[in-house]
Backbone:
């Protein structure tokens, strides 16, 4: 908290003290945490960061958290892997995969939720809650358990079974709502007004949003203190895109990296829910709501709260926005698994599809330093694969095995 100044309205600039509020009283704009970058210069350095723990908490000087209240489940410093095999298939020599699906609850959501839960403890809340497209609720339930808080998670009743099963193991109260995420979100906003709960992505949204900045810091540090040429980032509410950009800007602001002048952000959505892509490609920052119909359920937000801010980040970075065809998502989850041994969820499939498209359109050149963000783990969306498994069925006898293997090889030869 050393460097936190206040909360500022992104709409009109009105300033507020740091409290669990999320909209401006004057213009209803969202609030954002502001920092005293001047004081950070020379005090927060590459060395001071490297001396921190191997988690997101190494970036505590950039976060609105009092160290006495940290709720830590070991989030962050996930692998940034040079993707030589996938790069070769796509004709890229400098492609990296940020594998954030290996966080404690298997998605990047542990970043925003660690910050919010810590802040909720500091504010003295006893109840933690969220409205989720699937990954957030697992993270909130885990952090709630760790923080000894009563926890409620709300979600549309069409989510993947694995996400619900995982979440239930942390023993929160699970509420499956009829309708879409956007219906659930409307209901939870009303609920939040009537309860003194820390709703991580409603009244605590300003703190929640800050957590995603750590992905920006981390890739810059892992790339030996530089920003990449391209970031391909999945979007639902649009917050992650905006905050990776804010992270890179902040590092540059205090002199930890050079200004990210050559960094382009590329926003990725699935065709069945691409309101931000549509707005961006129509040359407007006014995002029109859509009704989601996509297998990328984690990205199925039809009314993205931070859509216009994500577009602003794309414009500032001379970036792009692309929708992945639904059919390509499964194909590209498999491509990444087959080439790099990384198993990502549908949001990651969307990112690889968009990466391919950008290469095809020459928007990413052969030697460009490129980072593709895998934000969730493939184990969470297994059900999309159930009828595509080609296994050899045999008895554990040498003769039977050899015969079956031969049959299998012949079959794969015929089908390829
Ligand atoms: C796996 C995954 N990736 C990306 C996102 C997009 O995050 P944001 O809402 O910040 O755009 C989500 C959101 O739930 C997600 O679950
Ligand atoms: Zn305002």
Residues:
């Amino acid at each position: 908290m050393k460097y936190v100044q206040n909360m500022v309205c992104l709409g009109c600039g009105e300033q507020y003290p740091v409290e669990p509020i999320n909209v401006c009283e004057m213009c209803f704009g969202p609030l954002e945490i502001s920092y005293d970058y001047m004081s950070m210069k020379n005090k927060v350095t590459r060395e001071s960061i490297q001396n921190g723990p191997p988690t997101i908490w190494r970036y505590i000087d950039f976060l609105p958290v009092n160290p006495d209240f940290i709720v830590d489940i070991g989030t962050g410093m996930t692998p940034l892997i040079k993707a030589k095999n996938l790069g070769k298939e796509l004709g890229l020599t400098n492609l990296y995969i940020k594998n954030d699906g290996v966080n404690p609850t298997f998605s990047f959501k542990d970043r925003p939720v660690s910050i919010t839960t810590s802040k909720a403890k500091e504010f003295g809340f006893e109840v933690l809650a969220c409205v989720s497209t699937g990954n957030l609720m697992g993270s909130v339930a885990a952090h709630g358990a760790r923080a000894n808080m009563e926890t409620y998670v709300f979600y549309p009743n069409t989510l993947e079974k694995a996400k619900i099963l995982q979440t239930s193991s942390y023993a929160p109260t699970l509420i499956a709502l009829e309708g879409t995420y956007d219906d659930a979100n409307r209901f939870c906003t009303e609920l939040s007004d009537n309860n003194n709960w820390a709703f991580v992505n409603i009244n605590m949204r300003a703190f929640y949003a800050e957590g995603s900045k750590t992905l920006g810091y981390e890739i810059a540090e892992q790339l030996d203190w530089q920003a990449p040429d391209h970031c391909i980032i999945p979007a639902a509410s649009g917050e992650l895109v905006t905050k990776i950009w804010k992270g890179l800007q902040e590092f540059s602001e205090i002199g930890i990296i050079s200004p990210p002048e050559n960094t382009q952000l590329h926003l990725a959505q699935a065709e069945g829910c691409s309101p931000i892509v549509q707005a961006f490609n129509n040359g407007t920052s006014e995002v029109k709501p859509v009704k989601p119909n996509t297998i990328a359920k984690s990205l199925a937000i039809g009314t993205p709260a931070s859509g216009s801010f994500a577009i602003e980040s794309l414009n500032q970075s001379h970036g792009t926005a692309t929708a992945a065809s639904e059919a390509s998502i499964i194909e590209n989850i498999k491509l990444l698994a087959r080439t790099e041994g990384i198993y990502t969820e549908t949001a990651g499939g969307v990112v690889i599809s968009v990466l391919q498209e950008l290469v095809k359109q020459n928007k990413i050149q052969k030697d460009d330093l490129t980072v593709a963000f895998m934000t969730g783990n493939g184990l969470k969306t297994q059900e999309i694969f159930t009828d595509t498994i080609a296994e050899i069925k045999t008895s554990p006898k040498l003769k039977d095995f050899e015969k079956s293997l031969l049959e299998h090889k012949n079959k794969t030869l015929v089908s390829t």
Residues 107, 133, 135-136, 234-240, 298-299, 345, 347, 375-376 surround pyridoxal-5'-phosphate (ligand 1) (CB under 6 Å). The mean pLDDT is 96. Residues 398-415 form the longest helix (18 residues).
